[in-house]
Amino acid sequence: MQIKPRQHLLDIWRATARHSFDDGKLVWKDTDGLSSVADAERLLCLLYPATEVPAFRLDQPDTTERDVLRALDGIGSRLEIPPNLITALTQFMRTHTGPDDSPTFAGGHYFRPSGPDTEVTHEQSQLGVVDSYSMSVTLCLATLGFLKVYETTTTRPEVRRAVAELREATNSRLTAAMISLLRSFTVNVFDAESEQGKRLIQVIGQHRQSDRAVLQQFSRRFRPLRATIIESLTRGIQVDESIRDESQLFECGWAWGVVRDAPRVTDLDGAVPGQPDGIADRLPYVYFTVVALDGIQDLFSDRTLTLGLLDADQQKLAEALRLRWELSQQYWSAVARFGADRWPLEDLPWQTTGLRLESEYFSLTVAAILVHDLVRRKATDDDLTRTVAIMERLADRGRVTSRMTRDDPVIRLHNPGVTMPLAGSEHSGAPLLWRMTDFSAQLLKRIIQLAELSRNIDAQDRLLRLAEQTFEHLWNRRIEEGEGIDLWDNAQAVYPDARGAPQRMSWSITERVTECLVAARNLYEQQPIRSPELAQLARELLSEATHLFGKEQLEASDSSDGSRARAMRSLESRLDRARGLIDERPATAFALALPVLQELDTLAQARGAAAQEV
Length: 614
What we know:
Helix content: 55-70%
Number of helices: 22
Shape: globular
Distance between the termini: 58 Å
């Protein structure tokens, strides 16, 4: 199934508007308002394409295209859509604000109890979580960009007041989310002889070397990173002094929430939103690290920088987050590619060290960090080819591109999903779990990111075919009737034997698919990969065609407006077009040159036949 970003995004917008708006007003469902993550994801399904795809812009009503208006007629008319979105966003900001007027980042119903006899208390449901911090960064930046453009198009006093109120609330939430991300970053230092140390050595050493040799390699490879952590991490984090001991192992990344005893950020010029005490253990999770990386990179996007969306305090926070963003990518990318032969990441499935879990989902999250790093440092062909092979294996093992067998345990990867205990949550009551059900959507997202990065024709072709297969799998999982029709997720639609997997509305998967379609649009906006071999062939064809065209011009012409003259002008125009494309699109230049040669040969044959008759 070919990915058609414009058509499929409009389908999602149409379904979202039908599900979430009534007469232009945002409609709250049973679980809405209980999770800031889900509520942010729902709004991003609309706002992310509207701010990232020029054809979908809603901030300049006079330029909104007709098919966009038809898709969003449930939200309002051309002039009503922006004010109604502002009202919905303001409602979100107010709903997720605490009694002290500081933003809240409740995980809500996304938190799961650890056993059948336990429940998530109200206090626990209000705990902040990295998913909410990261989603809030993306949502707030999209909102600020939307408001900055839209306010120049309206003079209505009530709308301008609403814009000012929403901007203030959005800036406050953005700052709070950035501070929370800083305070959720952690460095976990542990001894090589500890349980966690032994597991890390096993993962990166793959039982191919002695533990001592692996430890020595780790020490050498991570010495520069260790030095950077010692010298540079000062804000919002406490690092164990044992990090200075090179015989100690360490991991860095994001915990599930604000870390216990994380210091407050106090060196900002403006008002600092509430900073609740953290309870999370100093244990980095690859899943939450990926989530944080996805949000933080939006702080440095071209749109954010061009529109100047960050104030002075936010720019300071962004630089601190950027350091952690780079450290995490470098660390996990190096761990994934550790050693000289087979990568640890190629040894599926990935085993976590802190919680002793293993799953293809964790392999995908580590691969996602590797993709981030490959984009940052411009990947080599070898790195890219090996990563493509990993994605193909994950698609197969996750039964995305292969058939599920009878009683296949892989169904649990998609429904009910992979669960992780949240280390430290027991300080708030019964231990909590976090469940991930978006394996297929995350896989598609990373495949498209790799395809956008790749400048190797073979690798990109494999990725595009894999992306189309994965997208077809996901598209077939849309809900066909009832609540959330044409949105996600209905796993049983593609896994008929998955009994006990009822369809359920998931803004998490819906938002990930939306991100994938925006990324696919960016991919198609790129110039196609240039083939040096085809460019050389095209030049040779054009050289011959130009020579024969010049020879043909030596022949007598009937008149300037005769059929032969018109044919010659057409040939000349196509030759000029082919020459202009040869550097960027050699295949197109090749295709244009071939019929020119054929027509020139036809003219020559006709002339030869005429000469014989005479």
